[in-house]
Amino acid sequence: MGKKIVTLGEIMLRLSPSGYCNRFVQAEHFDVIYGGGEANVAVSCANYGHDAYFVSKLPKHEIGQSAINALRKYGVKTEFIARGGNRVGIYYAETGASMRPSKVIYDRAGSSIAEADPKDFDFDAIMEGADWFHWSGITPAISDKAAELTKLACEAAKRHGVTVSVDLNFRKKLWTSEKAQSIMRPLMQYVDVCIGNEEDAELCLGFKPDADVEGGNTDAKGYEGIFKGMMETFGFKYVVSTLRESLSATHNGWKAMIYNGKEFYVSKRYDIMPIIDRVGGGDSFSGGLIHGLLTKEDQGAALEFAVAASALKHTINGDFNMVSAEEVENLAGGSANGRIQR
Questions:
Q1: Residue 212 burial by CB count (10 A; 0-12/13-18/19+): exposed, middle or buried?
Q2: What's the pLDDT at 142?
Q3: Cβ atoms of residues 288 and 308 within 8 Å
Q4: Per-residue DSSP letter, 205
């Protein structure tokens, strides 16, 4: 029996050059894909059999409807999406390869969710009977209005006894570290599960791990201290970090760590090559972790599910992680050879 999982954020129209790894300046056609942090998490949770609700605001026109249809296609429930406003946010994504990094250009100012008002949403009705509420640092970064919506949603979640997770997701194109900390730190009082990487923790919350991440020296011990500090400061039940080793744009090492105040667990490491599309990789991790913490016997099993789910996402084009729980379990259980399943 699936759980009720609610996510809040912006879904955008993603335009990517047609053809594998083409550059923007080569593009004569763009492929249309819909995606965005919390929408991607909702799709993952729906794929794992949960009642996943995505909350946002989209225009009444056909592009807004297309975004809703993209979610419905994968079983995400859309009845709490408000309709109105002027535009769907757009982002352009260029897929990198080898030593050339991927690139994102945003065209999202003035989107419907950025201009949305609290009266567009009945957060008590939305959180009624929910088991989990997930949001990311992208949502309050969109606009001051969206930051207020995030706070109201968190307050309603707590009134209804809902577990709250955040993916810190710092986006330097949306706000500064100073602004991020002024908004994000107060919101942490509502959070049970904090997900982020070392950069997010520093830029959103002001915590810095004792580890040389750029040099690839991602020693877990450097994280144990910072996890404890974050837990003591904000009262999280779990602190979780992904560890990405960027060997090239198409070759990454990928693992994660989780701490519950008592035990510190490090997942197995995946060598991902070639990466097809890493956009949404962190969101697929969050979706896998939510499913894992809701259904697994311990935090280690939950984390292994999340890391395997995210490793698989890197092989899938688009923002959404289109995998079933069974496929993730097969990989988490040890089958990474990619042999044909007959």
A1: exposed
A2: 96
A3: yes
A4: I
In the chain, which residues have pLDDT < 50? 213-216
Residue 262 DSSP class: S
* Residue 127 to residue 324: CA distance in whole angstroms: 26
* pLDDT given at position 215: 47
Strand partners, 51: 4
pLDDT at 1: 72
- Return the pLDDT at 334: 76
**What Å distances lie between residue 221 and 151, 255, 278, CA to CA?**
33, 14, 27
Chain CA centroid to CA 61, Å = 27
Question: Encoding tokens for residue 151?
Answer: 């706070």
pLDDT for the residue numbered 112: 98
The three-point CA angle 206-211-214 to 5° equals 95
CA angle 92, 94, 97 (to 5 degrees): 165
The pTM assigned to this predicted structure is 0.94
**How far, in Å, are 23, 100, 101, 125, 244 from residue 28 at the CA level?**
10, 21, 21, 45, 33
pLDDT at 58: 98
Please say whether the beta carbons of 3 and 46 come within 8 A.
no
The position carrying tokens 């945003």 is: 106
CB 279 within 8 A of CB 35: yes
- In sequence order, the 6+-apart residues with CB closer than 8 A to the CB of 119 are none
3-state SS, residue 251:
strand
